[in-house]
């Protein structure tokens, strides 16, 4: 059976500040999703969230970037924004950058990751949702899952994985994309994806296969759309697992290292990406540290059987402790790099104003 998985997310108001989602917004979201299922627009749904972001996780048969599905998501976020206003939630409607929906959600603010797949007899999928970071945060984990044998032993010992995978990498600034074959081209690819603020992995495919993705991420960068600081993009991704793909444990393994990502306070700091269970998905200290939840599903005839809260497991306790220690270490740098992002990354915040003010005071150096 061919089925499309659409994960569409937005921050339409935080409770309190940018830390969580108010239960009334959640209720409004589920009411809309339930209605869409009853009307047959979608096959099934799950409501996901992390920090101040809500994700509509939906299955349907309409394909990716479908107008009806995107319009439904837009209307749902608009309705939630009304509730957010009613309850005085912080930054109500913050990710809805335009006044009205037209065509699909590209350039409108909400992030989305979608893939159409032929459902296998058993289809385990992990959906990752992150808050207080940006799409490039997935680069290192995706590299490890599908290209690093120190993470994924299946690349070495499963004959069906031994040939490697194909990565599609997007240049967010140049608005172009390039395909890399791994393992042959990993060094070339790492030159780019090692700069996650610009180059992000959009899709991963099986090698020599059709265009059916095995992993997909959301890649919008709000500031590029809005031309000013409007928060980080709090990305999502979906990864298929098992039977010739990385096992569930290999897909989760990269997050045992809480790697440094850009985001955190005012979207302007590096901090550890802390894997958490859904009970702990509420960035608090210095509006962070950035965090990621993992929702596990078995897909069956398009039904989302789940979620299982994958990072609530004890085996991620050490990663959390490491993340907290790294947070302490980085915080002590205050406004200094490398805690604060480099100057080029501050172009959409205070930098231009400060440079304008200082313009006439710069003199030629001796
Ligand atoms: C980061 C984030 C927060 C805000 C910060 C200031 O993505 O959302 O850290 O940037 O709380 O928010 P404002 O400018 O709305 O007061
Ligand atoms: Mg917010
Ligand atoms: Mg957020």
Structure, described:
The chain is 25% helix and 27% strand. The protein is built from 9 helices and 15 strands. The strands form 3 sheets. Strands 5, 6, 7, 8, 9, 10, 13, 14 and 15 form a 9-stranded mixed β-sheet that branches. A 4-stranded antiparallel β-sheet has the order 2-3-1-4, with helices on one face. A hairpin with a 2-residue loop joins strand 2 and strand 3. The longest helix is centred in the first third of the chain and has 20 residues, at 67-86. The chain starts with a strand and ends in an 8-residue tail after the last helix. Fructose -6-phosphate binds next to loops.
Structural class: alpha+beta
Q: How is the main sheet built? A: 9 strands, mixed
What do the pLDDT scores average to?
94
Q: Give unreliable regions as ranges.
A: none
The radius of gyration is 20 Å
Cα shape: globular
Distance N terminus to C terminus?
71 Å
Count of helical regions: 9
Helix content, binned percent:
10-25%
Number of β-strand runs: 15
* SSE succession: EHEEHEEHHEEHEEHEHEEEEEHH
